[in-house]
Amino acid sequence: MPRMLGSGPARWPTIVRVPPVSTLLTAVTLDPAAVALALAAAVLYGVGLRSAHRRGERWPLWRVLCFYVFGIAAYLVLTCGFTGAYGRELRWAFTLKLALLFFVIPPLAGLGRPLSLARTALGDRGRRRLDAIMASRPMRVLGNAFVAPVLGLAFFGTFLTPLLATYRADPVVSAALSVAIPLLGLVLALPITEAEGFQRTSSFIMLEFVYVFIELLADAVPGIALRLNETVLDGVTQWAAGAPGWFPSPIRDQQLAGDLLWFIAEIVDLPIIILMFVRFSRSDRREARSFDELSDEEMDALTEAHLRQRGE
User: Domain range for residue 295?
Assistant: First the structure.
């Protein structure tokens, strides 16, 4: 069993206790909200596949697998497996769950291109409605790469406050986060995975690229703060009676949560930056083709208008 807490952080044990493999593999809990979201997403994607097939469109198998395996199945493992079962008690399990739901699962599910599938499957009227929704002000704000890192930093920054205890202990709040966080992450990932739905100029994408490179690194700040802090920040300084012997001390639990958040926020940088580079390349080629299609008279008029703007 973990040693009892002393009078201060210096007396807390720092031994890393690893959960038994059997516990990692067999721990199960039911998260009704997460199951409902997973079922709804699976059915809607399946309906989209069927409609697209009827219209003669063949959806790549690897995109289907990305959505169902790396998206929905992985989501259920996180919410109903070990991290869901022990997230109420362990900070590191809860942090691991939400960090993966925000940073990792949405881009992987987004590789299934659910938005493009909806455009393919819907008729003209449905496509116009979808385009109107994606062109709305809230979606344009959330689809801006300047917003996503700030939201991640703001949310995980609350882990440095007693709110973390509320997130874990309140079943309603915990269930709401299990649904809201991956949905928000998916909306934030759409501009990268669904580039054609969020048209940007190559110069604007390059500006986003530089900003995201800086801000994605800043997302690691809450993890670093959790790792280096020597006091339990959420106020829960001891375990309930009957806690398993492999539970770390509360301060070590917080440090492990910081380690995981720090690692995930850093490691996710590389694929995001690669995807943004691909998006920039596509936008640059698209703009180049549009200029090539201009006649000499149209190009002269465009050049003259540009020079006139610079002169003003």
Answer: 16-311
